[in-house]
Design brief:
single chain; 32 residues; mainly alpha; 1 helix; 0% strand; rod-shaped; 2-polyprenylphenol hydroxylase-like oxidoreductase
Length: 32
């Protein structure tokens, strides 16, 4: 099912983006 595959892919990308933002924020806090 293509719709399911695309939806899952999109969900994954969104979670990846959130994880990246969290990482960058923590890195910034650590830097001062």
């Amino acid at each position: 099912n293509w719709d399911e595959l695309i939806k899952r892919q999109y969900q994954y990308r969104e979670e990846e983006q959130l994880a990246l933002e969290k990482y960058v924020r923590e890195l910034g806090e650590k830097d001062g």
